Amino acid sequence: MLDVRRLRLLRELAHHGTIAAVAEALAFSPSAVSQQLSVLEREAGVPLLERTGRRVALTPAGHNLVRHTEAVLERLERAGAELAHARQGLAGPLRIGAYPSATRALVPAALAELASRHPALEAMVSEVDPAGVAAALRAGELDVALVHEYDLVPTETEPGIAVTGPVFTEPMYLAAPAAGGVAEHRDSPWIMAGPGTLCHAMTLRACQAAGFSPRIRHQVDDFATVLALVAVGQGVALVPHLGTVGQRPSGVALTRLPMYRRTRTAFRAGAAAHPAVAAFAAALHAVVPRELRGA
């Protein structure tokens, strides 16, 4: 009989590529991961891994087993959702991931709404960039999360992860000392989010679409800080609507652009019907400003 816990390790190896990365993602030691995968190979009776030096690749049988593992784990999530429905009332922890501007502008109101409906449900929020959500969900560090995508940076489907349709859609703005478009700032210094984030990729692609590569002066993830830097002449930036709510300093002009950021909820495949996940989604929808729902 194949052990589900070991199957999870194989699935994570398929996503992360190295035993060290799997160990870091799941808070195991590399030797423990390697030992458990060796046990899984003995259980399977066929080679699942090919080792070349420090690199490990999955064999065709390993890839096939990962495909079946995704289906098994999805069925287990559905079973957990059905059991949760059978209990009386929602209680216990609900681990929520959210990106910073949503955490500031929407999540507090959503948590208040959630608490009023389900007072025994213990919401626990962690800030996480959308690029890290899939790994955190698969590792069980999160139960549900807010993720976003930009017109110029669509997100790829992650195995084992499901997402809803857009919960809300925000317009994007160019923040600069005076009104204008992106193309007018080919010679301006730019303020961007850190490398590896969707916000960073979005700004790069927007500038490239306007015919130039931006000259990056500052790399800052917090939009309040970005606007403060724009206000004192340190550069220009692209900012979504939530990044401007209640924090537009004097000296900053916001020019609306024909670009949008769309936010969805993400969770493990099979968990869509889990009452706690559905309760958070309902609470979030209740507090989203009407003008963002149909943008």
3D architecture notes:
Belongs to the LysR transcriptional regulatory family. Keywords: DNA-binding, Membrane, Transcription, Transcription regulation, Transmembrane, Transmembrane helix. It comes from Kitasatospora terrestris. This is LysR family transcriptional regulator. The structure is a single chain. By secondary structure, the protein is of the alpha/beta class. The protein has three domains: about 5-85, Winged helix-like DNA-binding domain superfamily/Winged helix DNA-binding domain (Arc Repressor Mutant, subunit A); about 90-165 and about 265-295, 3-Layer(aba) Sandwich (D-Maltodextrin-Binding Protein, domain 2); about 170-260, D-Maltodextrin-Binding Protein, domain 2 (3-Layer(aba) Sandwich), CATH 3.40.190. It is about 40% helix and about 25% strand. The chain has helices at about 5-15, 20-25, 30-45, 60-85, 100-105, 105-115, 135-140, 200-210, 225-230, 275-285, 290-295, and strands at about 50, 55-60, 90-100, 120-125, 145-150, 160-165, 170-175, 190, 215-220, 235-240, 255-270. Strands 3, 4, 5, 6, 7, 10 and 11 form a seven-stranded mixed sheet that branches. A two-stranded antiparallel sheet has the order 1-2. A hairpin with a 2-residue loop joins strand 1 (about 50) and strand 2 (about 55-60). Helix 1 (about 5-15) packs across helix 4 and helix 2 (about 20-25) crosses helix 3 (about 30-45). The chain starts with a helix and ends with a helix. The model has no long low-confidence stretch (mean pLDDT about 90).
